[in-house]
Structure prediction request, 611 residues.
Amino acid sequence: MITKTEATPGPMPGVESREQMNIVIVGHVDHGKSTVVGRLLADTGSLPQGKLDSVRKECQRTGKPFEYAFLLDALSDEQDQGITIDTARCFFKTARRDYIIIDAPGHIEFLKNMISGAARAEAAALIIDAKEGVRENSRRHGYILSMLGIRQVVVCVNKMDLVGNSEEHFKRIEAEYRTFLSDIGAVSPKQFIPIAAINGENLATRAAAMPWYRGPTLLETLDGFAKAKTRVDQPLRMPVQAVYKFTSHGDDRRIISGRIDAGRVKIGDKVVFSPSNKTSLIKSIEGFNTTARSEIDAGWSTGFTLAEEIYITRGEIMSHAEHAPLVSTRLRANLIWLGKKPFVQGRDYKIKIGTVASSVRIHKLVKVIDASERGGELIKDHVGRHDVADIILECRQPIPFDLIGDCEATGRFVIVDGYDVAGGGIVTASVADAQDDLRSEARMRDFNWVKGGVSVTDRATRFGHRSGLIMFVGKAGVGKHRYARLLEKALFAGGRQSYMLDGTNVLMGVDHDLSVDTARAELVRRFGEVVHILVDAGMLVVSTTNAIGLADHGAVQALIGDTPSIVVEIDPSGASTAPCDLRIRGNEPEAEVVSRIVELMASRRIITDAG
Prediction:
């Protein structure tokens, strides 16, 4: 069903549709964020009728003096505690545009709520109490805004009346905060403004009490911020949510579904799915009880059929071929950790970008920032709770992603520890790994692959299984050939298209022109290309070779894209700790080993059953 998810609410009731901008207000607890917003609402005439009176009555009920902050803290438990515990959203307007303003919580325990609110913003106002000065969350929020890719920031030094409206005091805070942000490589604010929010000074009107300040007011600064590029104008990105086929209803369509996070696409466009490199043309745009359409853009959840049926799975990203996302096992990121347990090296977690979910671990800690300390950078071997870090992550398999500056939707991620979202961040760079060149070669090859008249789906339907690679690895003489031949025979006897590819056959044939001094990487590359042709033909390739070890399996996988593979290591010593799908000692009964491999193939949906 075609549905539209708006990134922002529509225009205010009774107001003509105008340009809108999302602004987030952040800062340390009790530094006056909600007061700033409440005063902006009052001073711009943006309050709903009767709102001011209702808040005054609520203050009388609780025995508290009236504060502009209570215009935002609408929940009764928030007013009782005196802190903002969630992100409040409201609207105000200037002559130039309408603003959707997000008041984010400043208390450290509600940091996740603050990040959730700030993630939707195009610009930010960070509030610092003039009397208290730069505090823990002042530093932390400055880093987070930069981490979220928010480049338009104004810093308001609030409560200037409490420090005698001192210019010297204001400049001292500005210098300290600019130095901190510069030292950690965070965003450089566009403007510092001295304000007294409770009196409305330098918010909408200039402060007579601070004649030494000749810069713009807060409203003038906000109006000077540039509107962010719309998602429709960005390169096409649609993470695949699911693939549907309603054959039981006599419907032979194969519908690729998901939400278009960026860009637009129309019938007839050539699209590519990453990381598999599968390409096809858009045949139709599907919906339930909707008007037929030939084009669709960002914000819509929809479905597509393709001119050619190709095997696509959840987690792939659909794009145009000329603007495909990056693909790698390694990415550099700015991350904030909110988990109760620290983010440690040597342990697997799960990373989620779009609809992809992959095993991930720390490859390298570049630096860790502890915002509670003025010095900032720490020497640590882990990322603790509320720490922010510049980090290189490594996934178990290649995943598609973008840099945050290129596409926001696929440039952000979360880290899951067990069942909890424990951290999140933005991608700042793709980091080359050992298979980077091979993936680039495979992508170029796949984009220009001359397809035959029989599709992958046709072959899978005829053969009763997908193509796949089962690779036996281990030292010479441990029984690889014995198990491989028996697996090939068992699959063939079950009516499946299987073929045993020994590395020696490739070495004596395809590699015959190579000298004895040829780099092993080229031998592996050629072996992988032979495997690619066989799996493209729909075969179940059973491989055994001493030239291809566990370390080289990643190179072969890079050349066969998303074709599923299973690595079986034979290790008589039982001492190996290398990653594999099945490890045996070599003395197990052949029938038992074959049965276990077939069960693995069924669990990976390479075959439809384990019989």
The mean pLDDT is 82. The radius of gyration is 29 Å. The chain has 14 helices and 29 strands.
